[in-house]
């Protein structure tokens, strides 16, 4: 059973004139208040005057007002067929109940009830049930209820009990209006006088009127010059459409414009064929126009310029409408991506008009570059820590090899690379050295400590700028993060790093992390993050052995003194030190002491200083507990206070982080 | 064969009239030729024997002019119906956009109809064309003959039109059903062409 409403018939498509005004008004009233006004509404007219159009228009309008409403359209034949099927299946009651779920029943071709007593009785039952339940019926027929042969009297009374309204043949003005609208819809370039000439023909049905328009359009399609009103009249006369019509002028068709018949009655057959072909081709072409118009409505509604699509419509037909439409939509999709990126990088540029014009894609790309250049760059590594100053030894050889692989092929071999080492063993140096090497190769790197990562996130939360913060950390090609043990207990930061990690990994971008605590001993870090760290390559930077210490001490002394006393370097290297920083701190202390006494730094000076102050030295070391730091060239103290104590910028920031 | 060409703005449809010998394929084309204005038709090429049997094929080009900006041309072909001209039939079938199968309605010619229909399927298949994908119209010709000699359209539909394509009763000699058939196949071909070009 057909219950779907034909899409093309809506009130907007209907030309209203004196002939159908009453019927249209009644149908609109029913659509606005189903079941409340004319129930049932019975519309009748000769064929081809728009009964079906009105029925379905009422259904569409009612649904537009209340989308929950159900409106079923079916012809009487379908109604009968479904009834017979239901009876055959022993489901007659279910069939009747079905209509109680329908708010608006639109029944067409009711005249076929003539002589079908059984169906008349069934329809009577349905009408009674629906009216009792407050459901609306709209019926259409080619004759009034009283003219339907052998109609049950009770049913005739029911059908006439609401409003019976007829549609007359359209008068001249309505015919002209119909022709103009249809010609406009089909982009036909027929002169107004030609349309008037068609309307002059005594055609009583809208359907035939459209047929006459098609015929003249076919003539236009095969004529080199525009069709004249007389030619149109002649074409209609020849095809029999206007036989007996009030044709104003019956001037003979100019020989040049008339198709030359090759035999009697030839014009009709060939013209019919031509008209048929033309209608089919036009329909196919118009379907493109429909798609383009639909796309225009959509994108214009979303604020995009649609000049390119409008130009497509203006042309007769694009060379490849599908390709051009797809190209436009591709450009809009790219604009959307650019707009989202610019919104993150430079919100003040996001409102630019070029981001709404697919014809200015190049300008939009340039705008994005501008936004990127103006945006805060990702944190850069310290230029002081380079691989040249990092001393390779037996203990850190594996880490060095891994670092070289990462620099050579970032994102492909060891991702992430996780460097584990106690405080003072050179993790930070190593991390920044890797970052600098990558930077020297043109990679965009972000290198920072976890504390900076967390602090910036807290500031972004305060300023409601988290999306921009994310964009900043997502921009680099390589992410190097120091002291990841500092993430312990910071759930929001871990969440953000988790998301960042996944994005980098998915896009094959390199990550390097450094931790002062072995992964297995990390506490307060979510397992999902820990397992991701472990999924890459974990290398260790062990405490320096004697040889490495001596080479580092010699290098530092060489940088400070003109001549290095071998005894001094050997003595300093022999002193106990649990980290490279501690060993180099000793050197700095000796140099400072010698400078204070105005004596050259020798092994003797070093012995006097160090062997008499071992207790203080040990006490000092215990203060440097959390992580690696920057050794001051002047004092040997640790400059970075974040390396000394875990000090939140302010109380509110700490509370926010703990709360999250 | 490029059928809807957006660059040159041309639509070209090749329609082949297929069927057993003496079923009326050439008569169809002759009738069309006679009814098309001279300005719209090309020269009809017809190679026939003395007995009016198509030896090679008939070819009738129709120029329908500009429709929605497209220069629209139809090329109508017939194939020789006799079994021994199969290579010619294959040649003509190449690049066809639609086929009109002209069946002889005479009961005595039923087997030839069936044989020719099978031959059509085989030849299409050989060219990698699935007959289910090809627009086909059935024309039951010679319906003007005495009723006791011919099968009805319904009976022929039952026997030959198992794919339930459009079918037309015709009397090609006098023109009945000729243009109806051409219109039917043209519509199917054009719709398919448009759909095909959209999918490309």
Topology diagram in text:
The complex is a heterodimer of chains A (660) and B (200).
Chain A: H1 21-32, E1 41-45, H2 51-65, E2 71-75, H3 76-88, H4 92-98, E3 104-108, H5 117-132, E4 136-141, H6 153-159, E5 163-167, H7 172-185, H8 192-200, H9 206-221, H10 229-238, H11 266-301, H12 307-314, H13 321-345, H14 361-374, H15 397-408, E6 417-420, H16 427-440, E7 445-449, H17 450-462, H18 466-474, E8 478-482, H19 491-506, E9 510-515, H20 527-534, E10 537-540, H21 546-560, H22 566-574, H23 580-597, H24 603-611, H25 614-623, H26 641-644, H27 651-659
Parallel strand pairs in A: 1-4, 1-5, 2-3, 3-4, 6-9, 6-10, 7-8, 8-9
Helix pairs in contact in A: 1-2, 3-4, 7-8, 7-9, 8-10, 9-11, 11-12, 13-14, 13-18, 15-16, 17-18, 21-22, 21-23, 22-24, 23-24
Chain B: E1 4-5, E2 10-18, H1 25-35, E3 45-48, E4 54-67, E5 70-78, H2 86-93, E6 98-104, H3 110-126, E7 136-141, H4 153-160, E8 166-169, H5 178-199
Parallel strand pairs in B: 2-5, 2-6, 6-7, 7-8
Antiparallel strand pairs in B: 1-2, 3-4, 4-5
Description:
- The complex is a heterodimer of chains A (660) and B (200).
- Chain A is an alpha/beta fold and 660 residues long.
- Chain A folds into five domains: 11-166, 3-Layer(aba) Sandwich (Rossmann fold), CATH 3.40.50.300; 172-238, Orthogonal Bundle (Helicase, Ruva Protein, domain 3); 269-374, no CATH class; 387-540, Rossmann fold; 546-658, no CATH class.
- Chain A is built from 27 helices and ten strands.
- In chain A, the strands form two sheets. Chain A has a five-stranded parallel beta sheet, with helices on both faces. A five-stranded parallel beta sheet of chain A has the order 7-8-9-6-10, with helices on both faces.
- In chain A, helix 7 (172-185) crosses helix 9 and helix 13 (321-345) runs parallel beside helix 14 (361-374).
- The relative contact order of chain A is 0.05.
- Chain B has helices spanning 25-35, 86-93, 110-126, 153-160, 178-199, and strands spanning 4-5, 10-18, 45-48, 54-67, 70-78, 98-104, 136-141, 166-169.
- In chain B, strand 1 (4-5) and strand 2 form a beta hairpin.
- The model of chain B has no long low-confidence stretch (mean pLDDT 86).
- At the A-B interface, helix 11 of A face helix 1, strand 4 and helix 5 of B.
């Amino acid at each position: 059973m057909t219950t779907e409403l034909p899409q093309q018939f809506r009130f907007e498509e209907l030309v209203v004139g004196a002939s159908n005004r009453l019927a249209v008004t009644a149908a609109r009233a029913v659509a606005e208040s189903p079941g409340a006004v004319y129930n049932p509404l019975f519309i009748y007219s000769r064929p081809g005057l728009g009964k079906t159009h009105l029925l379905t228009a009422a259904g569409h309008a009612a649904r537009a007002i209340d989308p929950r409403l159900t409106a079923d359209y079916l012809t009487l034949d379908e109604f009968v067929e479904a009834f017979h099927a239901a009876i055959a299946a022993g489901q007659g009651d279910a069939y009747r109940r079905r209509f109680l779920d329908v708010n608006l029943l639109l029944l067409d071709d009711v005249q076929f009830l003539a002589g079908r007593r059984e169906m008349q009785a069934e329809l009577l039952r349905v009408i009674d049930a629906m009216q009792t339940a407050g459901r609306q019926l709209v019926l259409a027929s080619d004759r009034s209820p009283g003219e339907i042969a052998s109609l049950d009297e009770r049913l005739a009374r029911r059908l006439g009990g609401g409003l019976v309204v007829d549609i007359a043949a359209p008068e001249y003005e309505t015919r002209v209006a119909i022709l103009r609208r249809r010609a406009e819809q089909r982009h036909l370039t027929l002169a107004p006088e030609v349309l008037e000439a068609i309307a002059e023909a005594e055609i009583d049905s809208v359907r035939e009127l459209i047929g006459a328009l098609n015929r003249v359009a076919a003539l236009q399609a095969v004529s080199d010059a525009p069709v004249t009103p007389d030619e149109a009249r002649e074409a209609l006369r020849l095809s029999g459409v206007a036989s007996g019509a009030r044709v104003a002028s019956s001037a003979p068709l100019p020989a040049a414009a008339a198709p030359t018949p090759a035999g009697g009655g030839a014009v009709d057959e060939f013209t019919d064929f031509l008209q048929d072909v033309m209608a089919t081709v036009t329909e196919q072409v118009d379907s493109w126009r429909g798609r383009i118009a639909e796309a225009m409505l959509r994108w214009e509604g979303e604020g995009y310029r649609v000049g390119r699509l409008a130009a497509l419509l203006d042309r007769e037909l694009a060379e490849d409408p599908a390709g051009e439409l797809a190209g436009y939509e591709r450009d809009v999709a790219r604009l959307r991506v650019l707009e989202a990126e610019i919104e993150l990088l430079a919100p003040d540029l996001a409102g630019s008009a070029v981001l709404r014009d697919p014809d200015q894609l190049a300008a939009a790309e340039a705008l994005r570059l501008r936004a990127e250049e103006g945006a805060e760059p990702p944190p850069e590594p310290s230029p002081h820590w380079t691989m040249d100053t990092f001393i390779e030894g037996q203990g850190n050889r594996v880490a060095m090899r891994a670092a070289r692989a990462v620099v050579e092929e970032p994102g492909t071999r060891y991702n992430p690379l996780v460097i584990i080492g106690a405080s003072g063993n050179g993790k930070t140096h190593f991390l920044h050295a890797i970052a600098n090497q990558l930077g020297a190769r043109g990679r965009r790197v972000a290198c920072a400590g976890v504390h900076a990562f967390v602090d910036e996130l807290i500031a972004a939360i305060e300023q409601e700028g988290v999306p921009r913060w994310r964009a900043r950390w997502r921009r680099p090609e390589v992410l190097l993060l120091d002291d990841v043990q500092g993430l312990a207990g910071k759930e929001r930061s871990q969440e953000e790093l988790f998301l960042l990690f996944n994005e980098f990994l998915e896009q094959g971008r390199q990550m390097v992390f450094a931790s002062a605590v072995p992964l297995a001993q990390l506490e307060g870090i979510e397992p999902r993050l820990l397992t991701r760290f472990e999924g890459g390559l974990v290398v260790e930077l062990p405490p320096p052995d004697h040889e490495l210490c001596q080479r580092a001490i010699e290098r530092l002394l060489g940088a400070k003194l003109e001549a290095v006393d071998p005894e001094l370097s050997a003595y300093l290297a022999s002193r106990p030190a649990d980290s490279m920083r501690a060993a180099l701190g000793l050197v700095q202390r000796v140099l400072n002491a010698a400078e204070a006494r105005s004596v050259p730094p020798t092994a003797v000076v070093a012995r006097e200083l160090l062997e008499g102050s071992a207790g203080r030295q040990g006490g000092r070391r215990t203060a440097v507990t959390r992580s690696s730091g920057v050794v001051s060239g002047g004092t040997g103290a640790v400059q970075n206070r974040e390396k000394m104590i875990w000090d939140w910028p302010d109380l509110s920031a700490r509370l926010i982080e703990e709360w999250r | 064969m490029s059928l809807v060409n957006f660059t040159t703005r041309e639509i070209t449809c090749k329609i082949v009239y297929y069927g057993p010998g003496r079923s009326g394929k050439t008569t169809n084309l002759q009738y069309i030729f006679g009814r098309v204005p001279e300005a719209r038709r090309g020269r009809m090429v017809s190679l026939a024997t003395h007995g009016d049997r198509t030896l090679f094929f008939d070819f009738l080009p129709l120029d329908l002019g500009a429709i929605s900006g497209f220069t629209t041309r139809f090329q109508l072909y017939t194939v020789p119906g006799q079994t021994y001209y199969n290579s010619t039939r294959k040649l003509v079938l190449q690049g066809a956009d639609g086929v009109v199968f002209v069946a002889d309605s005479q009961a005595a010619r039923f087997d030839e109809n069936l044989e020719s229909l099978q031959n059509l399927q085989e030849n299409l298949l050989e060219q990698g064309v699935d007959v289910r994908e090809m627009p086909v119209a059935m024309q039951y010709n010679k319906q003007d003959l005495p009723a006791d000699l011919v099968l009805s359209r319904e009976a022929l539909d039952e026997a030959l039109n198992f794919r339930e394509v459009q079918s037309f009763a015709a009397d090609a000699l006098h023109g009945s059903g000729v243009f109806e058939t051409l219109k039917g196949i043209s519509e199917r071909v054009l719709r398919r062409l448009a759909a095909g070009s959209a999918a490309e």
